[in-house]
Design brief:
The chain has 381 residues and is of the alpha/beta class. It is built from 14 helices and eleven strands. The chain folds into two domains: 102 residues, no CATH class; 259 residues, TIM Barrel.
Length: 381
């Protein structure tokens, strides 16, 4: 007899089938192979104690503060731990319970229904049509941009994101006319050469006239760092049947990194997405056309960026594609002092973590390196 411990099994159903487990067994067993963790905040004390007993009765666990059983406070935060099968049973069980547990049950069910990406994330290459972006290696203008686009496609880019305005911390705003003048020759070159037939193009802008120019030129994605707060942007995405990427940002680029603060960044970003998705759907933009970006580095401290990346899988709850863009950003420098030109290893570490958490799109400057790293990581899984 030989025995050895296995690492994490990414494709659980496939592993069981390869072992020869019959179909019914695969359906039952795979739900027991992943452990789920749910933070529940400000739950009423009676609900905490009911949920604790119900969790224990099915083999799950609810970690609670020591004062919960004696009802020292009106509400407590707690940590629910269980496998998929246990969480399914618990979510049905709590539907009949009082003290807000029905809402807990519905939220748990929503997370269990959230789709899990079944393929590698798409790689979105970044082109900045300006001379002010924080990473000089991404700056291109006019036909220089066209050559770089062709190179990125050759390197394996699935999407190309082009912007004419820098959104780095402290960046100055520019007139609409200047943004349009910067982006127009690139749009015309893409349209004239029909490059949009090779890969989808994304316009990184929140200026309606610039967005429409790009959409008329064959672009298929609007990347709006302001979270589509201008209803004209939502209307344009709907009109041209484009995808709309909604990013979370606290403040404006000029001031966003001056003492940003959150009570709980995951909760607050989640609430923001719920509001923006509701507004998009009210205007007729279908949920499958919405991409969510938690906004790494946009009005965030290091601890906020880390919390969002560690808990990225939470945002699958919304049923939208997830985009992560941490390419060469200053959070790497805050972990270990590193000039921007030397931050590729840190970038790859962040983006590979994001891929394991369910990111659908990785926005980056270094396409070739990401294609290699993601392919190797997939082979290891």
């Amino acid at each position: 007899m030989q025995l050895y411990r296995l690492g994490e099994i990414a494709e659980k159903r496939a592993a069981l089938k390869a072992l020869g487990v019959e179909h019914g067994g695969v359906s039952i067993i795979h739900k027991k192979m992943s452990l789920y963790y749910f933070m529940i905040k400000d739950l009423r004390t009676p609900a905490v104690n009911i949920l604790k007993q119900d969790a224990l009765s099915i083999g799950a666990e609810l970690a609670v503060p020591s004062g919960a059983i004696t009802c020292e406070k009106e509400t407590f935060d707690c940590l629910l731990i269980g496998n998929q099968k246990q969480i399914e049973i618990l979510s049905r069980k709590e539907l009949a319970q009082p003290f807000g547990l029905k809402a807990v049950a519905e939220a748990l069910s929503g997370h269990l229904r959230a789709p899990i990406p079944t393929k590698n994330p798409q790689i979105m290459g970044v082109i900045n049509a300006n001379d002010d972006s924080f990473y000089a290696g991404s700056r291109f203008v006019a036909f220089g941009a066209l050559a770089r686009i062709e190179a990125m496609i050759e390197e394996g880019a699935d999407v190309i994101d082009i912007g004419a305005v820098s959104s780095r911390p402290g960046a100055s705003s520019i007139p609409e006319s200047e943004e349009s003048a910067r982006i127009r020759p690139i749009c015309e070159a893409i349209q004239g050469s029909k490059l949009y037939e090779k890969v989808p193009f994304s316009i990184d802008s929140y200026t309606p006239s610039v967005v429409e120019l790009a959409l008329q030129s064959g672009f298929g994605i609007v990347n709006d760092i302001t979270g589509a707060k201008d209803p004209k942007i939502i209307a344009l995405a709907k009109k041209y049947d484009a995808k709309l990427c909604i990013m979370h940002m606290q403040g404006e680029p000029q001031m966003m990194q001056e003492k940003p603060y959150y009570n709980d960044v995951v909760v607050e970003v989640s609430q923001f997405f719920a509001e923006r998705i509701a507004e998009c759907e009210a205007q007729g933009l279908r949920r499958e056309k919405i991409i969510l970006d938690v906004g790494i580095g946009f009005g965030k401290r290091l601890e906020d960026n880390l919390a969002l990346l560690k808990n990225l899988s939470h945002f699958r709850y919304f049923g939208c594609e997830l985009l992560v863009g941490a390419s060469r950003k200053s959070m790497i420098d805050h972990i270990i002092p590193t000039p921007v030109e030397e931050r590729l290893p840190g970038t790859l570490a962040i983006h590979l973590q994001a891929a394991t958490q369910g990111a659908h799109i990785i926005r980056c400057h270094d396409v070739k390196a990401h294609r290699q790293a993601i392919s190797v990581a997939e082979a290891l899984r």
